[in-house]
Amino acid sequence: MRNDLVLRVVGKLLIPFILLFAIYVQFHGDFGPGGGFQAGVIFAAGIVFYALIFGLENARKVVPDALVEAMLAAGVLLYAGVGVAGLLLGGNFLDYFVLDADPIHGQHRGIFWVEAGVAVTVCGVMLKIFYMFAARGDGATGLGE
Amino acid sequence: MGRRRGGTIIETLIINALLVLMALAVLVLARTRNLFAVVVLSGVYSFLMATLLVALDAVDVAMTEAAVGAGVSTVLLLGALHLCKSEEARPAHRPWLPLALSGATGLLLIYGALDLPDFADPAAPIHRHVAPRYLQNEVDVPNVVTAVLASFRGYDTLGETTVVFTAGAGIVALLRRRRHKGGGDAQ
């Protein structure tokens, strides 16, 4: 698919908006449909789209393997870290009310970081699975042939 | 709820039409031997499912279904297809026993579902247990789904995230070891 002009042009036009939409879904999850899981998947889908059109090698330059693998664990750690922060501030594990002087604001803060953790892990896992499958095809060129 | 009264019949029609289309997709899926067609059809099934979930007012789940079921898993299945033959081998046995088993399970599930409360019945037990407290919205987040997932059920979501992480780690462990054993190449 690398040499398909239509795909390349449409991909270049669409991918920024896919990534922007993922960020919108992430931060607007409190008010509309969406949240960390959906945002992570959509963000990963944008990168996968890029890898399909421009090849796995180029995608690996944009989002390197080391970063993806760090994302796997970082999200869960961030999530659990919010829980531990609640403990340290005198509440229960995953108690957001204590995260700020104003309990409601503390809830918002807790939900924000928890959703961020979910998004990071989900995005990392989706990308890692795709990278591993694609790399098994024919050497390192992946699906984009 | 007043808005929905007039649209109920049309909504039921749409939902039933989608369900019929999904059943058709499954029938064709079971009959098709070409794996590429199977992957595309399962994407079609996922999109029908996502549309159905929108019709049932479960937009959060619909979004996940569209992104994961139709989007990413289609790509992953295509990637797997890239590694094997695109035509499914003929089965050695006639699938009568599995068919009878799944038919019996389906009938049992339908029999069990007859006892469930009506769809969207406000008097159903599930709506009278903790749901009223969730809807008081003491965390002040307009999307109740997000409030329930991230705050009220924070433990569950931490578990889910860990499951996703474990799945990713499992895939890494499986595919990496193969590569080391086989020398340089990935097979």
Please give a handful of descriptors for the protein shown.
heterodimer; A: 145 residues; mainly alpha; 74% helix; elongated; disordered C terminus; B: 187 residues; globular
Structure, explained:
- The complex is a heterodimer of chains A (145) and B (187).
- By secondary structure, chain A is mainly alpha-helical.
- Chain A has one domain (5-136).
- Chain A has five helices and no strands.
- Chain A has helices at residues 5-27, 36-54, 56-62, 65-88, 103-136.
- The longest helix of chain A is centred in the last third of the chain and has 34 residues, at 103-136.
- The relative contact order of chain A is 0.17.
- With 187 residues, chain B is mostly helical.
- Chain B has a domain at 8-88.
- Chain B is built from eight helices and no strands.
- Chain B has helices at residues 2-31, 35-55, 59-81, 96-113, 125-128, 131-136, 144-152, 154-181.
- In chain B, helix 1 runs antiparallel to helix 2, helix 2 packs antiparallel against helix 3 (59-81) and helix 7 packs across helix 8.
- The longest helix of chain B is centred in the N-terminal third of the chain and has 30 residues, at 2-31.
- The radius of gyration of chain B is 22 Å and the shape is globular.
- Residues 182-187 of chain B have low confidence and may be disordered.
- At the A-B interface, helix 2, helix 4 and helix 5 of A face helix 3, helix 7 and helix 8 of B.
